């Protein structure tokens, strides 16, 4: 298989992206988490697509976070990121911003799309995020971006998540 070479642009998301973001979000979860979380969780996510579209419409209409999309030269969404005020209990050493999501299509792994999205959303600023334990590809990516585990873990229905922080 030839390497994917995206000609991309990063842009703010818009309300009319709700359908495309829903499909992208479902696809990237399948690509990133197959083998890491239970297959029935992934399958269940696809059972009510319209509710997911409506959720994206609420998120995009509320605009309390930075929502950015990467699109290829055909206008197809190939990645997205969501960054906003941290949802964790405030602490003196915890950055105030959280990377709530950063996903790219598997065909774009290693092409710079994820780095471009993260850079556009937070630059070199401090932030934190949660990563699924065992997601080596994501952990390696975030470590290259200056994030490190701070020892905080939580158990979610998808598994154990570990917090990474960049100060």
Automatic annotation (TrEMBL):
Name of the protein described by the UniProt record: GNAT family N-acetyltransferase
Which InterPro entries does this UniProt record tie to the protein? Acyl_CoA_acyltransferase, GNAT_dom
Record domain N-acetyltransferase: where: 8-167
One Pfam family matching this protein: Acetyltransf_1
Highest taxon of the lineage:
Bacteria
In terms of Gene3D superfamilies, this protein maps to:
3.40.630.30
Q: Which SUPFAM superfamilies match?
A: Acyl-CoA N-acyltransferases (Nat)
Q: Which organism is it from?
A: Prauserella halophila
